Protein backbone atom coordinates (compact mmCIF):
# COMPACT_ATOMS: atom_id res chain seq x y z
CA UNK A 1 0.00 0.00 0.00
CA UNK A 2 0.94 3.63 -0.46
CA UNK A 3 0.33 5.36 2.88
CA UNK A 4 -0.02 9.08 3.45
CA UNK A 5 0.96 9.74 7.08
CA UNK A 6 0.09 13.22 8.36
CA UNK A 7 2.12 14.57 11.27
CA UNK A 8 4.84 11.98 10.59
CA UNK A 9 7.61 14.26 11.90
CA UNK A 10 6.04 14.31 15.38
CA UNK A 11 6.53 11.93 18.29
CA UNK A 12 4.00 9.18 17.52
CA UNK A 13 3.76 9.69 13.76
CA UNK A 14 7.52 9.23 13.30
CA UNK A 15 7.39 6.09 15.46
CA UNK A 16 4.65 4.71 13.17
CA UNK A 17 6.64 5.53 10.02
CA UNK A 18 9.72 3.65 11.29
CA UNK A 19 7.51 0.80 12.52
CA UNK A 20 5.79 0.40 9.14
CA UNK A 21 8.94 0.70 7.03
CA UNK A 22 10.70 -1.93 9.18
CA UNK A 23 7.86 -4.46 9.26
CA UNK A 24 5.89 -4.15 5.97
CA UNK A 25 6.37 -3.45 2.25
CA UNK A 26 4.20 -0.30 2.39
CA UNK A 27 5.49 2.96 0.89
CA UNK A 28 5.12 6.06 3.07
CA UNK A 29 4.67 9.73 2.24
CA UNK A 30 4.75 12.03 5.25
CA UNK A 31 2.85 15.34 5.11
CA UNK A 32 3.97 17.59 7.97
CA UNK A 33 4.00 21.35 8.51
CA UNK A 34 7.08 21.15 10.75
CA UNK A 35 5.61 23.25 13.54
CA UNK A 36 7.70 23.60 16.73
CA UNK A 37 6.69 19.94 17.41
CA UNK A 38 7.91 18.48 14.12
CA UNK A 39 11.51 17.36 13.76
CA UNK A 40 13.05 15.89 10.60
CA UNK A 41 15.78 14.31 12.72
CA UNK A 42 13.11 11.86 13.95
CA UNK A 43 12.82 10.51 10.38
CA UNK A 44 16.50 9.92 9.69
CA UNK A 45 17.65 6.63 8.17
CA UNK A 46 14.54 5.82 6.11
CA UNK A 47 15.04 4.33 2.60
CA UNK A 48 14.61 6.77 -0.34
CA UNK A 49 12.76 4.22 -2.48
CA UNK A 50 9.95 3.72 0.09
CA UNK A 51 9.81 7.05 1.92
CA UNK A 52 9.34 10.68 0.96
CA UNK A 53 8.70 13.83 2.97
CA UNK A 54 6.38 16.69 1.95
CA UNK A 55 6.39 19.88 3.99
CA UNK A 56 2.91 21.39 4.13
CA UNK A 57 -0.29 22.11 6.03
CA UNK A 58 -3.13 19.57 6.28
CA UNK A 59 -5.51 22.54 5.90
CA UNK A 60 -4.07 23.31 2.41
CA UNK A 61 -6.86 21.79 0.28
CA UNK A 62 -5.00 21.82 -3.06
CA UNK A 63 -1.89 20.16 -1.64
CA UNK A 64 -3.94 17.63 0.33
CA UNK A 65 -6.10 16.70 -2.67
CA UNK A 66 -3.10 15.68 -4.80
CA UNK A 67 -1.47 13.67 -2.01
CA UNK A 68 -4.68 11.86 -1.04
CA UNK A 69 -5.41 11.06 -4.71
CA UNK A 70 -2.03 9.32 -4.88
CA UNK A 71 -2.49 7.27 -1.66
CA UNK A 72 -4.24 3.97 -0.89
CA UNK A 73 -4.74 4.98 2.74
CA UNK A 74 -4.32 8.04 4.96
CA UNK A 75 -3.16 7.67 8.58
CA UNK A 76 -3.93 10.99 10.23
CA UNK A 77 -1.68 11.91 13.18
CA UNK A 78 -1.14 15.64 12.54
CA UNK A 79 -2.48 17.78 15.37
CA UNK A 80 -1.71 20.47 17.83
CA UNK A 81 -1.25 18.02 20.70
CA UNK A 82 -0.35 19.79 23.96
CA UNK A 83 -3.02 20.70 26.53
CA UNK A 84 -1.01 23.49 28.16
CA UNK A 85 -0.49 25.21 24.79
CA UNK A 86 -4.21 24.95 24.06
CA UNK A 87 -4.96 26.82 27.29
CA UNK A 88 -2.53 29.61 26.37
CA UNK A 89 -3.69 29.97 22.72
CA UNK A 90 -6.54 27.77 21.43
CA UNK A 91 -6.71 29.08 17.84
CA UNK A 92 -4.08 26.81 16.19
CA UNK A 93 -5.95 23.83 17.69
CA UNK A 94 -9.10 24.82 15.80
CA UNK A 95 -7.18 25.42 12.57
CA UNK A 96 -5.29 22.13 12.56
CA UNK A 97 -7.43 19.71 14.53
CA UNK A 98 -10.80 20.78 13.12
CA UNK A 99 -10.22 22.47 9.74
CA UNK A 100 -7.20 20.28 8.94
CA UNK A 101 -9.17 17.08 9.63
CA UNK A 102 -12.12 18.42 7.61
CA UNK A 103 -9.80 19.14 4.67
CA UNK A 104 -8.37 15.61 4.76
CA UNK A 105 -11.71 13.77 5.00
CA UNK A 106 -13.17 15.83 2.16
CA UNK A 107 -10.25 14.71 -0.03
CA UNK A 108 -10.57 11.11 1.18
CA UNK A 109 -14.26 10.98 0.30
CA UNK A 110 -13.67 12.53 -3.15
CA UNK A 111 -11.08 9.88 -3.96
CA UNK A 112 -12.64 6.93 -2.04
CA UNK A 113 -9.44 6.63 0.05
CA UNK A 114 -9.26 4.51 3.21
CA UNK A 115 -8.82 6.83 6.23
CA UNK A 116 -7.61 6.12 9.76
CA UNK A 117 -8.08 8.90 12.30
CA UNK A 118 -5.76 9.03 15.33
CA UNK A 119 -7.49 10.36 18.43
CA UNK A 120 -7.10 10.39 22.17
CA UNK A 121 -8.75 9.04 25.32
CA UNK A 122 -9.11 12.66 26.49
CA UNK A 123 -12.30 13.02 24.43
CA UNK A 124 -14.05 11.08 27.24
CA UNK A 125 -13.16 13.59 29.97
CA UNK A 126 -11.85 12.14 33.22
CA UNK A 127 -12.61 9.57 35.93
CA UNK A 128 -12.52 9.69 39.72
CA UNK A 129 -9.45 8.05 41.31
CA UNK A 130 -11.57 5.33 42.96
CA UNK A 131 -13.96 4.75 40.03
CA UNK A 132 -13.79 1.04 39.06
CA UNK A 133 -14.92 1.98 35.53
CA UNK A 134 -12.55 2.57 32.61
CA UNK A 135 -13.26 4.26 29.25
CA UNK A 136 -14.85 2.05 26.58
CA UNK A 137 -16.04 2.75 23.03
CA UNK A 138 -19.49 3.46 24.58
CA UNK A 139 -18.35 6.15 27.05
CA UNK A 140 -20.03 9.52 26.25
CA UNK A 141 -17.80 12.33 25.00
CA UNK A 142 -17.04 14.96 27.69
CA UNK A 143 -13.81 16.81 26.79
CA UNK A 144 -12.29 19.33 29.21
CA UNK A 145 -9.66 21.42 27.39
CA UNK A 146 -9.45 23.31 24.11
CA UNK A 147 -7.13 20.52 22.90
CA UNK A 148 -9.42 17.63 23.81
CA UNK A 149 -12.55 19.43 22.59
CA UNK A 150 -11.00 19.96 19.16
CA UNK A 151 -9.94 16.30 19.05
CA UNK A 152 -13.52 15.34 20.02
CA UNK A 153 -14.82 17.63 17.26
CA UNK A 154 -12.52 15.98 14.72
CA UNK A 155 -13.73 12.50 15.77
CA UNK A 156 -17.35 13.60 15.30
CA UNK A 157 -16.55 14.96 11.83
CA UNK A 158 -15.06 11.59 10.83
CA UNK A 159 -18.09 9.73 12.20
CA UNK A 160 -20.48 12.03 10.32
CA UNK A 161 -18.50 11.60 7.08
CA UNK A 162 -18.74 7.80 7.48
CA UNK A 163 -22.48 7.91 7.93
CA UNK A 164 -23.42 10.67 5.48
CA UNK A 165 -20.84 10.15 2.72
CA UNK A 166 -19.66 6.55 3.15
CA UNK A 167 -16.12 7.59 4.12
CA UNK A 168 -14.02 4.41 4.53
CA UNK A 169 -12.77 5.37 7.97
CA UNK A 170 -11.78 3.91 11.32
CA UNK A 171 -10.92 5.83 14.52
CA UNK A 172 -8.62 4.96 17.41
CA UNK A 173 -8.48 6.66 20.80
CA UNK A 174 -5.23 5.95 22.62
CA UNK A 175 -3.97 6.69 26.12
CA UNK A 176 -0.76 8.57 27.07
CA UNK A 177 2.28 7.54 25.02
CA UNK A 178 5.89 7.45 26.20
CA UNK A 179 9.16 6.57 24.51
CA UNK A 180 12.04 8.20 22.59
CA UNK A 181 11.56 11.29 20.36
CA UNK A 182 8.81 12.90 22.49
CA UNK A 183 8.96 16.70 22.71
CA UNK A 184 10.40 18.09 25.98
CA UNK A 185 7.19 20.02 26.68
CA UNK A 186 5.46 16.73 27.61
CA UNK A 187 5.49 15.33 31.15
CA UNK A 188 7.97 12.43 31.02
CA UNK A 189 10.61 14.03 28.73
CA UNK A 190 10.35 17.29 30.65
CA UNK A 191 11.16 15.63 33.95
CA UNK A 192 13.93 13.40 32.52
CA UNK A 193 15.66 16.34 30.81
CA UNK A 194 15.23 18.54 33.89
CA UNK A 195 17.10 15.99 36.01
CA UNK A 196 19.75 15.49 33.31
CA UNK A 197 20.33 19.26 33.42
CA UNK A 198 20.49 19.41 37.22
CA UNK A 199 16.98 20.93 37.56
CA UNK A 200 14.17 19.53 39.71
CA UNK A 201 11.08 17.84 38.18
CA UNK A 202 7.88 19.92 38.31
CA UNK A 203 4.65 18.23 39.40
CA UNK A 204 1.35 20.02 38.79
CA UNK A 205 -0.90 20.31 41.86
CA UNK A 206 -0.21 17.45 44.27
CA UNK A 207 0.96 14.99 41.62
CA UNK A 208 -2.06 12.77 42.18
CA UNK A 209 -3.40 12.79 38.62
CA UNK A 210 -3.35 9.39 36.93
CA UNK A 211 -2.41 8.65 33.32
CA UNK A 212 -2.61 5.26 31.56
CA UNK A 213 0.82 4.87 29.93
CA UNK A 214 1.54 2.94 26.73
CA UNK A 215 4.83 2.68 24.83
CA UNK A 216 4.67 4.42 21.43
CA UNK A 217 5.69 1.16 19.68
CA UNK A 218 2.56 -0.51 21.06
CA UNK A 219 0.46 2.39 19.77
CA UNK A 220 2.03 1.89 16.32
CA UNK A 221 1.36 -1.87 16.28
CA UNK A 222 -2.26 -1.21 17.26
CA UNK A 223 -2.75 1.36 14.48
CA UNK A 224 -1.26 -0.97 11.87
CA UNK A 225 -3.56 -3.75 13.09
CA UNK A 226 -6.63 -1.50 12.79
CA UNK A 227 -5.54 -0.30 9.34
CA UNK A 228 -5.21 -3.88 8.12
CA UNK A 229 -8.07 -5.60 9.96
CA UNK A 230 -10.38 -2.94 11.46
CA UNK A 231 -14.04 -2.74 10.47
CA UNK A 232 -15.02 0.43 8.58
CA UNK A 233 -16.97 2.88 10.72
CA UNK A 234 -15.68 1.41 13.99
CA UNK A 235 -13.83 3.05 16.87
CA UNK A 236 -11.12 1.13 18.77
CA UNK A 237 -9.66 2.16 22.14
CA UNK A 238 -5.91 1.53 22.53
CA UNK A 239 -4.39 1.01 25.98
CA UNK A 240 -1.89 -1.20 27.80
CA UNK A 241 -3.21 -1.25 31.42
CA UNK A 242 -0.51 1.22 32.47
CA UNK A 243 -2.20 3.42 35.10
CA UNK A 244 0.27 5.40 37.26
CA UNK A 245 -0.02 8.64 39.15
CA UNK A 246 2.36 11.47 38.20
CA UNK A 247 4.18 11.40 41.54
CA UNK A 248 5.04 7.71 41.15
CA UNK A 249 6.38 8.36 37.62
CA UNK A 250 8.60 11.23 38.82
CA UNK A 251 9.90 9.11 41.69
CA UNK A 252 10.83 6.34 39.23
CA UNK A 253 12.69 8.87 37.03
CA UNK A 254 14.58 10.37 39.97
CA UNK A 255 15.55 6.95 41.32
CA UNK A 256 16.68 5.70 37.90
CA UNK A 257 18.88 8.82 37.58
CA UNK A 258 20.41 8.34 41.04
CA UNK A 259 18.60 11.21 42.79
CA UNK A 260 16.53 11.20 46.01
CA UNK A 261 12.96 10.16 45.16
CA UNK A 262 11.52 13.35 46.74
CA UNK A 263 13.76 15.84 44.86
CA UNK A 264 10.85 17.41 42.94
CA UNK A 265 8.84 20.67 43.17
CA UNK A 266 5.05 20.99 43.37
CA UNK A 267 3.96 23.82 41.04
CA UNK A 268 0.79 25.64 39.93
CA UNK A 269 -1.83 23.18 38.68
CA UNK A 270 -3.15 23.08 35.09
CA UNK A 271 -6.59 24.78 34.86
CA UNK A 272 -9.30 22.16 34.32
CA UNK A 273 -6.71 19.39 34.88
CA UNK A 274 -8.23 15.98 34.11
CA UNK A 275 -7.87 13.74 37.17
CA UNK A 276 -7.60 10.24 35.73
CA UNK A 277 -7.67 8.42 32.39
CA UNK A 278 -8.05 4.64 32.08
CA UNK A 279 -8.63 2.58 28.95
CA UNK A 280 -10.46 -0.72 28.50
CA UNK A 281 -9.03 -2.07 25.20
CA UNK A 282 -11.00 -5.36 25.23
CA UNK A 283 -12.58 -4.70 21.82
CA UNK A 284 -9.23 -4.25 20.05
CA UNK A 285 -7.75 -7.29 21.80
CA UNK A 286 -10.66 -9.70 21.25
CA UNK A 287 -11.88 -8.54 17.82
CA UNK A 288 -8.53 -7.87 16.12
CA UNK A 289 -6.17 -10.00 18.25
CA UNK A 290 -3.88 -7.11 19.27
CA UNK A 291 -1.86 -7.10 22.49
CA UNK A 292 0.87 -4.76 23.78
CA UNK A 293 4.52 -5.91 23.93
CA UNK A 294 5.75 -3.44 26.60
CA UNK A 295 4.23 -4.92 29.77
CA UNK A 296 6.91 -3.54 32.14
CA UNK A 297 6.52 0.25 32.48
CA UNK A 298 9.62 0.65 34.68
CA UNK A 299 11.78 -1.12 32.06
CA UNK A 300 10.30 0.92 29.18
CA UNK A 301 10.85 4.09 31.20
CA UNK A 302 14.48 3.14 31.93
CA UNK A 303 15.08 2.65 28.16
CA UNK A 304 13.45 6.02 27.48
CA UNK A 305 15.64 7.72 30.10
CA UNK A 306 18.73 6.15 28.50
CA UNK A 307 17.65 7.45 25.09
CA UNK A 308 17.34 11.05 26.38
CA UNK A 309 20.71 10.73 28.12
CA UNK A 310 22.31 9.58 24.84
CA UNK A 311 20.52 12.01 22.50
CA UNK A 312 20.89 15.47 24.02
CA UNK A 313 21.52 16.84 20.51
CA UNK A 314 17.94 15.91 19.57
CA UNK A 315 16.21 17.64 22.52
CA UNK A 316 18.56 20.42 23.72
CA UNK A 317 17.59 22.96 20.99
CA UNK A 318 13.96 22.94 22.31
CA UNK A 319 14.65 22.90 26.04
CA UNK A 320 15.37 26.53 26.94
CA UNK A 321 12.39 27.99 25.07
CA UNK A 322 10.08 25.32 26.51
CA UNK A 323 11.21 25.98 30.09
CA UNK A 324 10.89 29.76 29.57
CA UNK A 325 7.21 29.25 28.59
CA UNK A 326 6.57 27.11 31.68
CA UNK A 327 8.35 29.57 33.95
CA UNK A 328 6.12 32.42 32.71
CA UNK A 329 3.10 30.30 33.80
CA UNK A 330 4.58 29.58 37.24
CA UNK A 331 5.15 25.96 36.24
P1 LIG B 1 3.32 15.95 18.27
O1 LIG B 1 2.93 17.30 18.74
O2 LIG B 1 4.60 15.34 18.75
O3 LIG B 1 3.40 15.93 16.68
C1 LIG B 1 2.42 16.56 15.87
C2 LIG B 1 2.98 16.64 14.45
O4 LIG B 1 1.96 17.23 13.61
C3 LIG B 1 4.23 17.53 14.33
O5 LIG B 1 5.19 16.90 13.52
C4 LIG B 1 3.70 18.80 13.66
O6 LIG B 1 4.68 19.46 12.88
C5 LIG B 1 2.57 18.24 12.83
N1 LIG B 1 1.54 19.25 12.51
C6 LIG B 1 0.93 20.11 13.38
N2 LIG B 1 0.06 20.90 12.72
C7 LIG B 1 0.11 20.52 11.41
C8 LIG B 1 -0.57 20.95 10.24
N3 LIG B 1 -1.48 21.96 10.28
N4 LIG B 1 -0.28 20.36 9.07
C9 LIG B 1 0.64 19.36 9.00
N5 LIG B 1 1.33 18.92 10.08
C10 LIG B 1 1.06 19.48 11.27
O7 LIG B 1 2.07 15.00 18.59
P2 LIG B 1 2.04 13.48 19.06
O8 LIG B 1 2.17 13.41 20.52
O9 LIG B 1 2.95 12.70 18.19
O10 LIG B 1 0.53 13.13 18.70
C11 LIG B 1 0.19 12.68 17.40
C12 LIG B 1 -1.30 12.36 17.35
O11 LIG B 1 -1.61 11.38 18.32
C13 LIG B 1 -2.20 13.55 17.65
O12 LIG B 1 -3.32 13.47 16.80
C14 LIG B 1 -2.60 13.35 19.10
O13 LIG B 1 -3.87 13.94 19.35
C15 LIG B 1 -2.67 11.85 19.16
N6 LIG B 1 -2.43 11.24 20.48
C16 LIG B 1 -1.32 11.56 21.20
C17 LIG B 1 -1.07 10.91 22.40
C18 LIG B 1 0.17 11.21 23.23
O14 LIG B 1 0.31 10.69 24.33
N7 LIG B 1 1.12 12.02 22.76
C19 LIG B 1 -2.00 9.97 22.89
C20 LIG B 1 -3.13 9.69 22.14
C21 LIG B 1 -3.33 10.32 20.94
O1 LIG C 1 -4.22 10.86 27.06
C1 LIG C 1 -3.68 11.12 25.81
C2 LIG C 1 -3.07 12.52 25.78
O2 LIG C 1 -1.88 12.45 26.55
C3 LIG C 1 -2.79 13.02 24.38
O3 LIG C 1 -4.01 13.20 23.72
C4 LIG C 1 -2.02 14.34 24.40
O4 LIG C 1 -1.65 14.71 23.08
C5 LIG C 1 -0.77 14.17 25.24
O5 LIG C 1 -0.10 15.41 25.35
C6 LIG C 1 -1.14 13.64 26.62
O6 LIG C 1 -1.90 14.63 27.36
P1 LIG C 1 -1.63 14.92 28.91
O7 LIG C 1 -2.12 16.28 29.21
O8 LIG C 1 -2.08 13.79 29.75
O9 LIG C 1 0.00 14.86 28.87
P2 LIG C 1 1.13 15.78 29.52
O10 LIG C 1 2.43 15.12 29.16
O11 LIG C 1 0.99 17.21 29.18
O12 LIG C 1 0.88 15.61 31.08
C7 LIG C 1 0.80 14.34 31.70
C8 LIG C 1 0.41 14.54 33.15
O13 LIG C 1 1.50 15.17 33.83
C9 LIG C 1 -0.78 15.45 33.36
O14 LIG C 1 -1.50 15.00 34.50
C10 LIG C 1 -0.15 16.82 33.64
C11 LIG C 1 1.10 16.45 34.39
N1 LIG C 1 2.27 17.34 34.24
C12 LIG C 1 2.65 17.74 33.01
C13 LIG C 1 3.77 18.51 32.83
C14 LIG C 1 4.20 18.97 31.46
C15 LIG C 1 3.01 17.68 35.38
O15 LIG C 1 2.68 17.31 36.51
N2 LIG C 1 4.13 18.45 35.21
C16 LIG C 1 4.55 18.87 33.99
O16 LIG C 1 5.59 19.56 33.90
Automatic annotation (TrEMBL):
InterPro entries: dTDP_Gluc_deHydtase (IPR005888), NAD(P)-bd_dom (IPR016040), NAD(P)-bd_dom_sf (IPR036291). Its EC number is 4.2.1.46. Pfam families: GDP_Man_Dehyd. NCBIfam families: dTDP_gluc_dehyt. The gene is rfbB. Gene3D superfamilies: NAD(P)-binding Rossmann-like Domain, UDP-galactose 4-epimerase, domain 1. It comes from the Bacteria. This is dTDP-glucose 4,6-dehydratase. It catalyses: dTDP-alpha-D-glucose = dTDP-4-dehydro-6-deoxy-alpha-D-glucose + H2O. It comes from Agromyces intestinalis. GO terms for biological process: nucleotide-sugar metabolic process.
Amino acid sequence: MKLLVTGGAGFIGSNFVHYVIERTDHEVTVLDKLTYAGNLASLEGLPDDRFRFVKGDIADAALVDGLVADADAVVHYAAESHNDNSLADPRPFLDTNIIGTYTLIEAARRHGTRFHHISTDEVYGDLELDDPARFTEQTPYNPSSPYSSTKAGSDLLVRAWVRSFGLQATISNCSNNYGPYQHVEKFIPRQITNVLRGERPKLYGRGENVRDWIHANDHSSAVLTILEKGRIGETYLIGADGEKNNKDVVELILTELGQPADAYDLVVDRPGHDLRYAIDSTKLRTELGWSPQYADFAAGLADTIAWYRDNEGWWAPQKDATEARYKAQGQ
